[in-house]
Automatic annotation (TrEMBL):
Annotated protein name in UniProt: Betaine--homocysteine S-methyltransferase 1-like
Record keywords, A-Z: Metal-binding, Methyltransferase, Transferase, Zinc
Organism expressing this protein natively: Lingula anatina (Brachiopod)
The keyword Metal-binding appears for this protein: yes
Sites where the protein binds Zn(2+): 212, 296-297
InterPro entries: BHMT-like (IPR017226), HCY_dom (IPR003726), HCY_dom_sf (IPR036589)
GO MF term (any one): zinc ion binding
Example of a GO biological process term: methionine biosynthetic process
Cofactor(s) annotated in UniProt: Zn(2+)
Hcy-binding domain segment(s): 8-311
Cofactor note: Binds 1 zinc ion per subunit.
Amino acid sequence: MSTRKAIKGLEERLKDGESIIVAEGYLFEFERRGYLQAGAFVPEIVLEHPQIVRQLYEEFVHAGSDVVLAFTYYAHRQKLKLIGREDDLEKLNRKALKMAREVADETGTLMAASLSKTMAFIARDSEAIAETKKMFREQVQWAYEEGVDFMVGETLSDLEEAMYALEAIKEFGLPAVITLSSLGDTTRDGHPYSEALKKLEDAGAAAVGLNCIRGPATMLPLMKEIRDVCKGPLCALPVVYRTSPDLPSMQSLTGVGPGGSNIRYFDLPAWQCSRTEIQEFAREARAIGIQYVGLCCGNASHYIREVAETLGRSPPASRYSPDMGARHDPTLLAKQAETSLRKT
């Protein structure tokens, strides 16, 4: 367990009405940098290139993240089985957690770890449910032993599976943030999102909301509906892509080639949000009353800086915020203009 100096925790900050900025999006960013394979999306980078993982932890804090989220997303048995590395499961988790704890201690930020959908869950299947619970519990136990401040259950499609994640987190007495992925009109097990999140809130989650799948333009309208039902702290962490009412998810975005074929993952950068759109997202999230705000797939450090600055912060990266008026020496520009006038 960490012996770091105590700082204000998640629940205390939420109770005091503070905004908490959280950078997610490790999978896509590491794939973009050439350290993770799209498709299986297994976080082998934690063991093979740990310095790159630690660097991104530091970059996100530098840009304004209040939380170092350990890269334990998809670091579970089902994913490690895909590549024949199930024996490395605990080693991978603990490595990701230890690095996150170190960076959080050095920067005075909170440290969290994430649980993702297990790929093992099947409703009404007792063996699958038992395996799901086991997978969640072992990851939470490792996180607890490595000194995590709170846990995140994210990108969960079923309310039932989300409840199992929350149950595992509560067993260890840790604060829980639970976010659902909103691909359709309801959770995969048929619950409206506002209803599902209210159930999770009532079951003891410190904050609830949505992450991934939807971009800002299609997540925020749904968050307004959720705000009307859920009375506690809310979370919103969209993907950084231009979704729309006609194309509400990143999975639904289509290309511009013959037949408008679905591009899925490969060409998603063609739909990247602008920095201005991310600023607008942060402003609207604040207006709705969303306290736990961040970005998911497609995120990068400059986007998190936009969120932080829009919410009134000045993270270290603000020293390098764009100032296009500083491209030239104003005195030199004046002399050049004077010379041009003389020539005419």
